[in-house]
């Protein structure tokens, strides 16, 4: 059976925080959650754009400033959310950048790794104790099919200071999203209330690819009608990961079409590299050191 937006359960009484929710996948995710009754926080870098987006959504929607390229902003956003929301049911780590020219965040991290992974790692750690007491709460992190493309965690040059390839750097950041999810789920398992789940939108027609190099952008433009899908469809794997009662922690959802490029959301498998527990744990330790954020869940034992 194909999973569609009609299968999203009622979300009355639930609080959802969606990063990057003023446009594209994040907007469609936030819109549908609000329409199903959730109280949704649009966590966005540009609050004026966030307010315009909120005005287009029917439901209980608020806007919170969040710039994932600044750990100071991440901490301020988390503090603001803690002051206004005693609990969070859904944290959806959706925002991201893709194929950016070489540049750094305000804290000196490579832009894609710093935004897509470290910003969300820090935000999740600062908010997790608001989810832990809530039965059925979830952290959903959006990865990409790009986690398979030239992707590895380059511990010897995480910030791409020696050489930079925008496609490989994006792949590293999206691989990091998955490794973070899997390690977080192991740590959450003992608590039994909160689940960590990952999703990817296939190849969706959004603004995210605006920085793609010409060698990628050209074929995408030509093949777009065949291989891409609109943001309304691209948001479905995230929505299923966030709301389907049958979803389990540590799972990964994406489209069911050829190459997972488009289609209806289903359970999918990530790359073999993403399941390397030793790399997941090393990445976690490095991420804690880089962000200064410690999670309220300890390291889980790994079966031999």
From TrEMBL:
What organism is listed for this UniProt entry? Micromonospora noduli
Instruction: Give the residue spans that cross the bilayer.
Output: none
What family does this chain come from, according to its entry?
Belongs to the short-chain dehydrogenases/reductases (SDR) family.
Q: Which SUPFAM superfamilies does the UniProt entry name for this protein?
A: NAD(P)-binding Rossmann-fold domains
**Could you identify this protein by its name?**
Dehydrogenase/reductase SDR family member on chr omosome X like protein
- Keywords of this entry: Oxidoreductase
Annotated segments matching region Disordered: 247-270
